[in-house]
Automatic annotation (TrEMBL):
The keyword Calcium does not apply. The chain crosses the membrane at residues 55-72, 78-102, 114-143. It comes from the Bacteria. It comes from Allorhizobium borbori. This is Biotin transporter. It is found in: Cell membrane. Keywords: Cell membrane, Membrane, Transmembrane, Transmembrane helix, Transport. Gene3D superfamilies: 1.10.1760.20. GO terms for cellular component: plasma membrane.
């Protein structure tokens, strides 16, 4: 990694942490709150790509492990890994990777702006919604003891907001790609 990569990884880790300053919205029927930090995960993947996006998320998780209150609601420390949100937290890693990989594969270097925007949106939904929810639902089942259907149906409340986040991430990534492309091109 060069200095530019280190700066970008650190910058996006800081963006994810900054999005944690927005207070979580708790729902009464599921033990996982709505937060803005999943937007940061989508942004990291769509703008930085698989490797650097995943490293930025890994840096945030490292900060959580050492006890810094960088998660939404001022949470941090090892106790977070024993709570019902652990699946979503750990799921940030594969979510950023899948989002970044798909962005590199289908959106990097594309000349057509609309096609690139659509591909970035699909990448953000695939990684930041599908992969993240799969990990989060498994985490709720294992840690909170929720049955699959309750964990799945409770998670559906997050879908509209996360689709908006995916759209925001795609728009931001498209703007960055148009002015200062950062995504590695995969074929």
């Amino acid at each position: 990694m060069n200095t530019r990569d280190l700066v970008l990884v650190s910058l996006f880790a800081a963006i994810i942490v900054a999005l944690g300053l927005l207070p979580p919205i708790t729902l009464g029927f599921i033990p996982v709150p709505i937060t803005a930090q999943s937007l940061g995960v989508m942004l990291a993947g769509t703008i930085l790509g698989a490797r650097r996006g995943t490293l930025s998320v890994a840096l945030v998780i490292l900060l959580v492990i050492i006890g810094l209150p960088v998660l939404s609601g001022g949470r941090g420390g090892l106790a977070v890994f024993a709570g019902p949100t652990v699946g979503f937290l750990i799921g940030w890693l594969p979510a950023a990777f899948v989002t970044g990989y798909l962005s590199e594969r289908f959106a990097a270097g594309r000349a057509n702006g609309f096609a690139q925007l659509a591909n970035l949106f699909i990448a953000a939904v695939a990684g930041g919604v599908v992969v993240l929810y799969a990990c989060g639902i498994v985490g709720m089942m294992l840690v909170a003891g929720l049955p699959f259907m309750k964990a799945l149906s409770g998670s559906l409340a997050f879908v509209p907001g996360d689709l908006i986040k995916a759209g925001v991430a795609a728009l931001a990534a498209r703007a960055v790609q148009a002015g200062y492309p950062l995504l590695p091109v995969r074929s």
